[in-house]
Amino acid sequence: MTTGDNAAAMKSHATYSTAREATAHALRTRWAHLHEIADRQPRICDLGTGDGEFLDQVLARLELNARIEIVEPDEDLAPLAIQRLRAHGHDVSRVQDTGSGLPVDAYLAAHVLFYLPDINGWLTSALARLAPDGVLSVVQRAPTCECNALRKLVRDHHGVAPKVTSDRVRRLAATHGMTTDVVPIASTLSYPTVDPCLAPVPAQSADPELARLICWLAALPTDQRLPDALGREINAFLTDHLVDGTLTLNQYDLLITATRSVGAATQSVEPAATRAQRA
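Above: the chain sequence. Below: its structure as tokens.
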């Protein structure tokens, strides 16, 4: 997808989905410890900041100002994030190398691990950056998420295995002496439409905004022809989730937070009800 398509899709998702609000609430609770160091402005690193709206929302809920390092490769989105966060009193810098710099009190990676070429290397450097009481928070879709089902259709068509799972993140964190806890986040995407189906070339669909959103969720280009079989599978899925003029997808995300373990052993404080959802 192009930069413009990505930005438009993220805006549509924020408009028609309750995921951002639900995730911000969960993250605010998990980052409550930042209030204890509010007087020195907590240092935060955000991998894949986008336009900055989500992080800004989280920090507004926490009612604190922070020193923020943003990692955003998109040359159009990064300036928007910097402008938005600085306008609300944060000290913001854009960095390329997250493996060096001062210790951070919180490190956020929301729905971005899929794009990393070396997850092990990134996690090693991210954990090394944490202050003694710092936390690393990763947000990703649960296997039961219906948006994840769209991406699975694409993966299965191309014979590609999932690149990262919540269990993999937790195992890697454990090898670095970290304890992880997992918080499930439930939300809903509700998009009003009379025709949710994608055209063979998604950009030519009856509802271009919805097509951008679906391609963004499924990691598909909007300007290339879909394989016929994959197009039929996606459209059957979308039609099955159209009820009374609204495309409705139940979304389930996982907030995985890593903290330093006490002693050599690691432990999980994951609620039992969560285990059925995680990968």
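The mean pLDDT is 89.
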